[in-house]
Amino acid sequence: MVSILAFLKQTKNSIIGNPTAKVAFHREGAVSTYFANFIVEYVNVSPDALVNIEDSAIEIRTEAAHVITSLASGSKETLHSLLAAGAHEAILWAISELQPNDPPSLRTALARTLRALATSYAEIVGPSLWGLGEENNEIQSEARSALDSIFETQSLDIYLPLISDPSPVTRVAICQLISNAVRQPEHRKMVAEWVPMADRAKESKGKRGWEKPGVGHTHSSVRVGGWITQTLSALLRSKEPKLQEAALSALAALAKDTPSIGSVLAKPSTDREGATSSQPSALFIALTLCKSRQVNLQLAACLCATRIIRSNNNNRSTDITPAWTLLHVLNNIISDVHEHNLLRAKACFVLFALSSDQKEICRAAVKSGSLAKLSDLIKSITITEDFQDWGDSEPESTSKLREAALTAVSALALFDNEIRHEITSVFCLIPHITVSLSHPQAGVRYAACQCVRAISRAVAVLRTSIVDSGVGLSLYKILENRDEDRRVSAVALAGICNLVNNFSPLRSTLINKGLIPRLAELTSSPYHSLKLNALWAVKNLVHKCTPEDENTIMEGIGWERLGTFLYDPNMEIREQALNILCNIASSASDIEMIFGHLGYERTVDALNSALGCPDEGVLCQGINCLANIANGSAEQRAYILSCASILNGLRNCLTHSKLEVRQAAVSCVRSLVQGVPQQHKEVRDARIDITLRHIVGSVVPTSPSISGHVMGVEEDAEVRKIARLILDLLERPE
């Protein structure tokens, strides 16, 4: 009879590093019907349960943990079995029951198992850390629930203290759990604000009964950035590269899109009381470690520094000096033909994270040679001459490298026409992008679509290279494919939005190929990104087109469908529907068409609803649409003016806290007043004239408006100028 321990060791040795064996276990029914529950049960086996069995309980628990760790990286079917068996709950319980005299090997094994499970759950839930990743909708709900439970305060209390474990291997495992599994904002917040129970107990001392402390954090810990960021920052000063790499990656995960964390990590370290210490900032250490001789450590340092930099200056052009250091390191890795493909791919993805939506950093990257090196890389692994098809012989690492390089190129091209010109005319990458649109890997197709979307924003490129190369039609083939990955279809559709602008030579070609029925189909898609981008394409199609084309487009899309979208509960959908209506209403005949198909009551009610919407995007588009429709016939303007709630809503928008809303509102009022020069009673009854006098400074400010903005002299000179023009019109004798 084979002992339990021997069986576990034999199983571990047969499946570690062997995906085929893991699949075989599930195919034979072992994992789904018995195996997972069996293994999970023995993670918490007690010595009392091993009567007449010579095996050590500690060894059995350790080996069971090793087996679960290996199975966690297997197929989604195997992972589903582990989810059903409650593997993560069993591991958390096992860690909570660890005793001081338990060997370090058990503690390390359990930490690694929890890391493996959390990482696999996070990969199912998404987003992927490196590239597009796979979609696993079948078990996404179960994985999300399990991941949420791992990041609950009660769970954090169990395993986060292990980040201070004497064993560096255990500390690495917990750091890697954070870096691999923290991908959602809510999980990031939970980890960042957590402090040990002992610290929470100290914080609660001296408080009166009704002054309850927070469950997972204290005021002082949040003020100085959190216990976890201080602990991880201290690990950066370790002499062990693996621990430094893991700590850097964990800090990168916590700092992503989180200014409160990024600002702390960019400043010199503080002690637990908030006092500044003599230790350098985490950002300074990360930039220093970028120069390490170990590529994995370099990449972790670059990613950490990138996340800190981006969280501090997101969407703003500030000092980009630290970015130059990162660009130099990343360029060296990208251009090193002797380096492993996956490491070069990570360098490309970090470059994407650094430069995405940052115009100045994009320009710096091109100046530093990033685009040239990416071009050389793409050309070295992508054959375009006599290309037939991809076949199935390309290594996965090469496909991932191509995806990463194209992704980085798409980020560099997004804002600057000169960069787009270099991509198309200097480095001549369009043929390589075109063939990549038909690659068997969805991630490569996705990245290639992103490139087409970025370069097609340049009018000159759109009218020449895009048309001549045929890449636009290749993009449309992706949209026609009903079996395409929906994420690829969505980004292809985003590119199509550029190709159907009124100045695009491909506009009529795509319409003739059946674009309108396909867009109508996609506006009913259950996937938000497809529906939204389809409406965006319709918005561009109806912009500055002839009344005949407008009618054809809207008959294909459906007026009734558009009317429904005007009340959609999703604000992005509703905003695009209003944008479509706004673009249609460009002439008197177009406005007549709108009222004819939607009706007077429905049209005005939709506009009234938009003016009362708290979403600023919907609000602005509603105002712009009202301004255009106000240019209709006298009967239509009179109907609008008879709606007191629209005029009241417009008056409130004149003092909105956002300048964009105030600009749209004052322009709309001008359209209404100019359109009815002898009928201003309704405008005065709505007290719009009084609000305008406040704006230009004719009335002493009193109190805030309903929107929360103080009703006083307008700061923007253009708004004041238009307000004075409107008052001049209102004060003319009727």
TrEMBL record:
Keyword annotations: Cytoplasm, Nucleus, Repeat
Pfam families, per the entry: Arm, HEAT
Protein name from the UniProt record: ARM repeat-containing protein
GO terms of biological process kind: proteasome-mediated ubiquitin-dependent protein catabolic process
PANTHER family: ARMADILLO REPEAT-CONTAINING PROTEIN 8
Keyword Transmembrane included in the entry's annotation: no
Assigned GO CC terms: cytoplasm; GID complex; nucleus
Membrane-spanning ranges: none
InterPro entries, per the entry: ARM-like, ARM-type_fold, Armadillo, ARMC8/Vid28, HEAT
Subcellular localization: Cytoplasm; Nucleus
Source organism (scientific name): Rickenella mellea
SUPFAM superfamilies linked: ARM repeat
